[in-house]
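WARN retry 2 of 3 for item q-0093 after timeout on previous attempt; input resubmitted unchanged.
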Amino acid sequence: GEETAGALLPYEEVRDYFHYVDNYVDDLDRAAEDLAERLGLASASDRLQVLAGYLAARHGLNVDANGNLGDDILERYEAGPNIIVLDGSLDSSTRAFLLANRIARLEQAETMAGIVSGAGFRSRAAGDIARVALANYFAGALLLPYRRFLAAAKDTRHDLDWLGRIFGASLEQVCHRLSTLQRPGQRGIPFYFVKVDRAGNVIKRHSATRFQFARFGGACPLWNVHEAFEQAGRTFVQVAEMPDGIRYLSLARAVTKGAPHWRAPVRRYAFGLGCETSYAGEIVYSEGIDLKADAHVAKIGVSCRICERANCHQRAVPPIDREIRVPTDRRKVVPFDLS
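OK item q-0093 returned
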């Protein structure tokens, strides 16, 4: 690894926990699915209204879905008037997600505490971050209930936009949920999911695959998740091969988060979603792609400093475990050879 286990930061501890459980949390997932069925969320034309009604009836909380909370606050709970205020500039899928998240914190606190306790995190900060992640997990599972979403994913051949329309969900919510469909006996395709910013920083990463991510520093520049920023809104499709020889069907799309007013900062991200090519026949985006043609395969790695490829024209730095030789009789794109 790129650092010893003892050096893991709180965020890394939580990411590793979700990786070890295949990004699937059974207790929360089933509880969310049960509630979704009781509320009829999957077929509701206005999920925001359904969730607001449930919070009022069950917890005595009123919802103001059109508040003005500023540039960096999405939701606020006001204990005095017993009201939840959502920023009105957010799209409906985000506001529904925030209400689902609030339900998780109200109703699943004990379950989440038990999961955190059993995970054995080394720091209080890691436990606090895990609670945030678990509440988000429940919210996603409530809005995209497992069996209905899995069936729709198969029916649409994992068409991201189609799934978003069926469930009234954002691209990020759909991609994230696809990466969690690992319920024993009802498994979906094992996907990886990643969210990066324009500088290549990994903001979110989950994987039910063998795909490896860089913990620190930039990821491989040949990976199409970086190319996605060049044309926001377009879905980029790539067959990528890691140094271990495993090939992935990799999807990437960049999105822009709308600003509430002229001077507000604009947030831009790219999402990456992928699976091993053995599942490509079940993915609509594989149509027209020759999965066996070596000429069209991108030879990617985790990051330059741990990549073993000796002939990569995009190499930025040598790997940390190899010596370099600088030839004096020729100059190549990369000015050194690896021992």
